[in-house]
Amino acid sequence: MHRNQGVLTAFLSDSDSDDLEMLVEATEEEEAEKERQRTHRRGSVPGRCVINRDRGEGHNRIYRDYFSDNPVYHGVYFRRRFRMHKPLFCRILSDVEAYDPYFVQKKDAVGIPGLSSLQKVIAAYRILAYGVPADFLDDHIRIGKSTSIESLRHFVKAIVAIYAEKYLRAPNEDDLSQLLQVNEQRGFPGMLGSIDCMHWGWKNCPSAWQGMYSGHYRKPTIILEAVASQDLWIWHAFFGMPGSLNDINVLERSHVFSALTNGRAPPVNFIVNGNNYHMGYYLADGIYPSWATFVKTIPAPISLKAKHFAQAQEAARKDVERAFGVLQARYNIVRGPARFWDEETLANIMKACIIMHNMVIEDEHGPGSIDFDFPTPNVIPSREQTNEFRDFIQIHHQIRDRTTHSQLQHDLVEHLWDLHGQD
Known about the structure:
Elements: H1 2-9, H2 14-39, H3 55-67, H4 75-82, H5 86-99, H6 117-130, H7 138-141, H8 145-167, H9 173-185, E1 191-201, H10 210-213, E2 221-228, E3 234-242, H11 247-253, H12 258-261, E4 268-272, E5 275-277, E6 281-283, E7 294-295, H13 304-330, H14 343-365, E8 380-381, H15 389-399, H16 402-421
Parallel strand pairs: 1-6, 6-7
Antiparallel strand pairs: 1-2, 2-3, 4-5, 4-8
Helix pairs in contact: 5-8, 6-8, 8-14, 13-16
């Protein structure tokens, strides 16, 4: 072509020759671009391979296995694999689909149905329950990695938005009365639960933050502070503090006593060993401060009364440890290292797991799952309100009163010995 171009330009003027050269160069560039497009991989995103996953077959397989009139896997298998009974899961599925249009099945530009709400919800739920990578579900549910991650983000946000008000709340008056009755029967009148912290490893913590989030575990972790009762219901959850903090640092930032100090939670009035008390308390381990709202064990007890109290306190305090263990067993994602980058998603995951954990407890045991025939308790929730600033300061000092802490511990030692020490 260049030879013919040279022969032709010999018969043309200089201006015509320049125009011809520009035309030839433009033609060559156009041919080169067409050649690049022919050899380049195609897809919705440059470099991405399109897979015909047969999404309809994925939905039909899940439906036949678990949700048809005669499923392949019946109730026992469903409970084992989904960590809850089918009616509760269907309720969650229906509520999430009604709340977030993302889960409604849609058609693409050529009319092919997309992923169903069942596929998206089950993909998100199994990542929570089993802690598996996002692309692990592709071969069975027929859902890609990026869609699984997107479904998980939408799912946990929907769970928190729909159910947090009911299943991630502080005890109301009915809950408080039952908690007090149960714990009085156990030998701890005025007890509201047990408190402790759990660390969740953060595998993909940004490098700039790893020093702040690394503590005695030597790896980045995020802390969950929780209060649990005997039935393993988690009444308080404070999540997001870096792993370099200890339980006292987390407590100083927590809102566990905010309702009490602001007058929104009525104080609890009870009598132990002839002494009157006006605030409930939590069982805690030795690192917590000696406040009036905490009852700790006696280290190295000597007398029989002290040994009996230490044994009873340490046994009852295990409620929160058991709750952590069941939560991690039910939703394995919070047992293993977290793979997400942003704290908001991690917080939504933790809250969603706690919410569904409480939903399972309510579904399988009913609200207030510890059922005893109680006598009328002598622990009475007060209805008094304290909203003024001086009352706030006064309650703040009462919570941190070391004298009351020591007196309450002594009275509980005598109370437990009178109840069970002679047995």
